[in-house]
Give the backbone structure.
Amino acid sequence: MNKKEFLDILYEQLSGQMPEGNVAAHVQYYRNYIEVAVTQGRTETEVLNELGDPRLIARTLLDTDSTASGNPQTTGSYSEPYTDNSYEYDNGSSGSKKVKSRSFHIDLSTWYGKLAVILIAVVVIFLLCTVLSILIPVMVIFGIVCFIISKLRS
């Protein structure tokens, strides 16, 4: 088994079982782990043998995903799904590989993502009501004054 097969199996086992952002984060973590170990002089086969079966890793990740709050490996949310070519590398002059920048987003499938949306909606409604409660009386008074002035002129 090579790195691509390992990552593809891991992705297939996780896909549909957890949010896509978490799947991509797990796959990227193992991609980086393998690449770092290989750059340290180990062979890809040695690293993959040490990691073991990607199906077992996926099962472990699925079993622990809901209780893994605070784990940077699972809380990062990549904005695009995993494909073998989704992460481009830039070879710098030093010969080291660097991941190009990626954007992040709030994962609305989690309780804290939903809570954030609800809190934002409550704040917006509160501000809107506050502004309207000040504006409506001012506009009514302004309208009455304008009406009285127009009647006095005619």
